[in-house]
Amino acid sequence: MDSIQRKKLVNELISLIEKGNAHVSFKESVTGLPSELRTIIPENLPYSIWQLVEHIRIAQKDIVDFSSSAGSESLAWPDDYWVEPTDTVTDEDWNNSLQQIEKDQQRFQALLEDEQHDLFAPLPWGTGQSLLREAMLIADHNAYHTAEIVVARRLLKSWK
């Protein structure tokens, strides 16, 4: 793959992770959410929006850490990927979580943009995973849970 094709592919992957393309972005899904609705678990749903945001943060960080280094510590599924329900989430905790999601996306973007990394080559410390696969995993996983946030917001009467 020449460098022009690589750059096009990287740009498409970054767009997919950040914007979603066919649906609202993660940022859009959480923008304007009243703080008092963060921890409410809508009827017939298993998680609050806070739990979904934290799950996205934890899982994405795990993927980025794994993609960056052989020394990343594995989390236990599912316990380490989900936070327990809570009654309150401070603005500081909420903003820290959103900032960490953005920071980890930027870290992953830097990995993708580094031409020293072959997007298709298996990561030496993995079991066949490549940066391309991990990019699609982040995009797919975040899209799935972003949709759940939108559904929760609709049930809480806090969506467009």
Automatic annotation (TrEMBL):
Residues 28-149 form the DinB-like domain. InterPro entries: DinB-like, DinB/YfiT-like. It comes from the Bacteria. It holds the Pfam family DinB_2. This is DinB family protein.
